[in-house]
Design a protein that fits this description.
Elements: E1 11-18, E2 28-35, H1 40-47, H2 57-62, E3 73-78, E4 84-92, E5 102-110, H3 123-127, E6 142-143, H4 161-167, H5 172-187, E7 192-195, H6 203-217, H7 220-223, E8 228-232, E9 243-246, E10 262-265, E11 270-272, H8 282-289, H9 294-307, H10 313-316, H11 319-334, H12 336-339, H13 344-350, H14 359-362, H15 364-382, H16 389-402, H17 407-423, H18 427-439, H19 441-453, H20 455-472, H21 475-488, H22 496-511, H23 516-535, H24 540-563, H25 571-576, H26 583-590, H27 596-612, H28 627-641, H29 650-653, E12 658-659, E13 665-666, H30 668-678, H31 682-692, E14 699-700, E15 703-704, H32 706-719, H33 727-732, H34 739-751, H35 755-762, H36 764-791, H37 871-876
Parallel strand pairs: 2-6, 7-9, 7-10, 8-9
Antiparallel strand pairs: 1-2, 1-5, 3-4, 3-8, 4-5, 10-11, 12-13, 14-15
Helix pairs in contact: 5-8, 8-11, 9-11, 11-13, 13-16, 17-18, 17-19, 19-20, 20-22, 21-23, 21-24, 22-24, 23-24, 27-28, 30-32, 32-34
Length: about 900
């Protein structure tokens, strides 16, 4: 248009061959006249490509000159913005020279909103438009703007559609094919080419008759989009043109122009790219059945327009939309006859129409249809049927659209559906129905409010459902889930069935836990918080929660005592069992215990908690316990301590080995056996022995408890003989002990020494006399040997080894303190051999019986003699 501004007037343009035109000064084809409102660029770009006429091959071949023998070519094209180009091209026998034939095109440009111009119902005026056949450029090149589209005689509008189709050879199959092809073309990119079996001179006229029938059957969106040409010599694809009527005989097989397009050749009875076997679409069937009932078709189109209000443009140009709407319209118009045939997929495709703004008021017919079909489904439930998943899904979606308007109906529907499934024993169906209900929060609240309020529904539907939910939930969420139901529906606290359901569920779930004490601790802690929080409120839910919580505490405690496996108990579980330190709650729970086994388990648990968590020690731990219970507790305690004894827990070890009528004595041997078996590192045992000096169970005012002293002797003699022979042990542990412990350790060390060493240690004076006598004997022997050697010196020969004189080592003083070394005599050549000390801290080989050390002072080395140890040397090797 001239300035792209909307105009209400109808613009005109004329085109032919003249001596000059608007855009060229020489003779030729050009626009010879136009309205002022038309922009030159628009004329050249949009209108000129439409100004064309190719004479029919049949007439051109015969050289026919009569203009009325040539068909007119009417074209219609919808432009962006809603404007329309409607024009006609006709054959002219002579141009301005009178020497050659030409054509003349007259176009109308109808702006959007023009009177009698671009509305969906204006197809009649388009097909009845009146055009001029020629124009004299002497009249001027500017055409007037029109207020409306000029009209010719419209008498043919009243023709019966059936008659027109019959005369043109269109039966049901051909008409459905044409309608289907046109609708598909408008929704896609394919073109439709039709060759009518009529004389060439009447082609355009008959095409307009067929177009009137076609327009009546097309919904509004298609009418406002369809572009057509009533005559073309050949099938040519043009932008914006969907339907082209071509000269008969021009649709040739194998033509690349049409090989992928929709082709209907009435002359040969041939149709291409149209699957005639799939033409039983609902809308095609409906249009054919109502083709002669124009008013009914218009009613349907109005219905479709109303349903499509607020929808996107793609829906309006989708053939599937009208197939669905045709079925919905038929059901709405014919009531029960068609209502029962509506299936869920179809009704589901109708829901998007109801999601548009103001759909509740403007699309009441569709709402009525969905509700009427719902009533039929409801009737089937009354007969005991279980609704299908598609039905439930459909009306759950519909409920999401209309909300409260059908809430009561849908809740009643779901109650009946669950009841039917439950009565039939179909647990899978029951579970699925509840899943559907839970998927919509609003529906779930409304549904459970109804079933909780009525006792018959609560007993049959709600509590079995609650039991399943409690069974499925993780233990740490169990209490929260139950109390959430109570807060949402306080009425459930009035049912005794709630308490039974909760007790059974909790007991069964807790019994399956491997770490029963940990699970019970968690639950009791949660119930304590529930009680504390509920006491602050005063509503029905709060009061009910407090009562239920206290009852469940007893259930947890009783289940714990009946099923606890002490052999699986861990110190971590005990540390987190805070309820065992709440004497008030324990007293209340224990008052209800009657079964001896549970009472015993309670006492044992309390003792273990006091022992390992509250750090109580001594015989007080076992007060109130039966002897067998105390022994059991000791065994459990040993197992718990065996996991890794730490130095700071030495005092915790003592109660595990207490014995006696009043648990006042310690079984020291068993204690050392336990340490020996459980302590991987001996260091732990040595630290325990050092610690024992500080404990009254081991040390008294006058010294160690005799039984403990004896156990120490037995331990180092039988289970750790090498301990006191290690210099490292003395350095790291035993040297730092008190005098009393060090004295005991020296005693034990002496006991482990060889017999001669023990004898010498016990008789110091005898050892001294023996040493002096031994020295005298040595001197006498040495003197004799020296005198003999002076009288008769042996002759040394190469074959006889010489005898080397060896300086005797100093003989240790029998009165010398163990652990000291005698200084060698000045002036001697040989250094004395050091004698190992048998005192505390001697670094000895860890062997049961050491070999005696040879004395360096006995005899002379010779070919036939060997040295032998004597008693004085053994005495020097103290502690070996």
């Amino acid at each position: 248009m001239a300035d792209n501004k909307p105009r209400a007037a109808v613009q005109q343009q004329m085109y032919t061959r003249e001596r000059c035109g608007i855009f060229r000064s020489t003779e030729g084809y050009d626009t010879i006249a136009k309205s002022e409102g038309l922009d030159a660029g628009f004329v050249k770009k949009v209108l000129h490509p439409l100004c064309v006429y190719d004479a029919p091959a049949s007439l051109a071949t015969d050289g026919v000159k009569e203009e009325n023998a040539y068909p007119e070519s009417i074209h219609l094209l919808h432009l962006d913005g809603g404007s329309i180009v409607l024009g006609r091209s006709i054959y002219k026998g002579a141009d301005f020279t009178g020497l050659r034939s030409t054509f003349f095109t007259h176009n109308y440009i109808l702006p959007a909103g023009a009177a009698g111009g671009t509305g969906a119902g204006d197809y009649r005026s388009w097909l009845s438009a009146r055009f001029v056949d020629s124009y004299a450029i002497e009249s001027g090149m500017e055409l007037q703007e029109l207020l409306a589209l000029p009209q010719a005689d419209a008498g043919e509008e009243e023709e019966v559609s059936g008659t027109v189709l019959a005369e043109l050879g269109f039966g049901e199959r051909e008409f459905k094919a044409l309608l289907h092809a046109v609708m598909q073309s408008l929704a896609g990119k394919k073109k439709v080419y039709v060759a009518l079996h009529v004389p060439i001179a009447r082609l355009s006229h008959e095409a307009k008759r067929l177009l009137r029938v076609l327009y009546r059957c097309l919904p509004r969106a298609y009418r406002e989009t369809l572009g057509f040409i009533t005559y073309s010599k050949e099938p040519v694809s043009r932008k914006g043109i969907h339907l082209t009527f071509v000269e008969p005989g021009s649709l040739r097989a194998g033509d690349r122009e049409t090989e992928k397009e929709y082709v209907i050749d009435m002359a040969s009875g041939r149709m291409m790219n149209i699957d005639v076997e799939k033409l039983e679409y609902p809308y095609l069937h409906y249009a054919w059945s109502a083709v002669e009932r124009g008013l009914e078709l218009e009613d349907f189109h109005q219905y479709a327009d109303k349903m499509l209000e607020g929808m996107d443009g793609n829906s309006a140009l989708s053939p599937a939309t009208y197939h669905d709407l045709a079925e919905l319209y038929a059901a709405a118009e014919h009531g029960d006859e068609r209502l029962g045939r509506l299936d869920c997929p179809l009704l589901g495709r109708a829901l998007p129409y109801l999601r548009t703004p103001d759909a509740m008021e403007s699309k009441i017919q569709l709402h009525d249809l969905l509700l009427a079909r719902f009533d039929l489904y409801y009737d089937s439930l009354m007969q005991g049927e279980i609704p299908g998943e598609d039905v439930i899904s459909l009306y759950l979606q519909y409920y999401g659209i209309v909300g409260k308007l059908m809430e009561n109906k849908l809740v009643g529907f779901m109650v009946l559906a669950v009841t039917n499934a439950d009565r039939s024993g179909d647990e899978e169906a029951v579970a699925h129905l509840y899943d559907v209900i839970e998927s919509d929060e609003s529906l779930a609240v409304a549904f459970f409010r109804k079933v909780v309020e009525e006792a018959r529904f609560a007993e049959r539907l709600f509590f079995p459902y609650l039991a399943r939910k409690l069974k499925e939930v993780q233990l740490h969420n169990w209490t929260g889930l139950l109390m959430e139901w109570g807060r949402s529906f306080p009425r459930i606290f009035q049912y005794e069935q709630l308490y039974a359901t909760a007790r059974d569920s909790l007991g069964a779930k807790l019994a399956k836990e491997r770490q029963t004490l940990a699970a019970a601790s968690l639950l009791l802690e949660q119930l304590l918080h529930v009680e504390a929080g509920s006491k602050q409120g005063g509503g029905k839910a709060d009061i009910g929660a407090v009562g239920l919580g206290k009852e469940l505490e007893l259930t947890v405690y009783d289940t714990l005592l009946s099923g606890i496996r002490f052999d699986r108990l861990t110190r971590h579980e005990l540390a987190n069992a805070e309820f065992l330190g709440d004497s008030k709650r324990l007293r209340r729970w224990n008052e209800g215990l009657r079964e001896p086994g549970r009472m015993a388990a309670s006492r044992k648990l309390r003792a273990l908690y006091a022992w390992f968590v509250q750090s109580e020690s001594g015989e007080s731990l076992f007060h109130g316990l039966e002897p067998d219970e105390a022994q059991s507790v000791q065994g459990i305690g040993r197992d718990l301590l065996a996991g890794g004894l730490r130095e700071e827990e030495f005092d915790r070890l003592v109660p595990a080995f207490l014995q006696g009528p009043l648990w006042e004595t310690v079984n020291y041997d068993e204690l050392f056996n336990f340490l020996h078996e459980q302590c991987v590192e001996k260091d732990t045992i040595y630290r325990f022995i050092l610690w024992s000096e500080t404990s009254p169970y081991f040390m008294r005012t006058r010294g160690f408890v005799p039984a403990y002293r004896s156990s120490l002797h037995r331990y180092f003699s039988k289970q750790d003989r090498a301990a006191l022979k290690s210099r490292a042990n003395w350095k790291n542990f035993f040297n730092g002990s008190g005098d009393k412990l060090k004295g005991v350790l020296k005693e034990i060390q002496l006991e482990q020494s060889p017999p001669l060493v023990r004898l010498l240690r016990k008789n110091r004076k005898g050892t001294l006399l023996l040493s002096v006598a031994g020295a005298g004997v040595v001197l006498v022997v040495v003197g004799i040997v020296m005198s003999l050697s002076g009288k008769d010196e042996p002759v040394i020969t190469p074959d006889q080894p010489s005898t080397t004189e060896v300086s005797p080592a100093p003989t240790p003083d029998a009165g010398q303190e163990p652990g000291t070394t005698q200084q060698p005599t000045q002036g001697t050549d040989a250094s004395p051999t050091p004698t190992p000390s048998a005192g505390v801290g001697a670094d000895m080989e860890e062997t049961a019986e050491p070999s005696p050390t040879p004395s360096p002072g006995l005899g002379v080395t010779g070919p036939d003699r060997t040295t032998r140890p004597d008693a004085s040397d053994e005495a020097a090797t103290d502690g070996q």
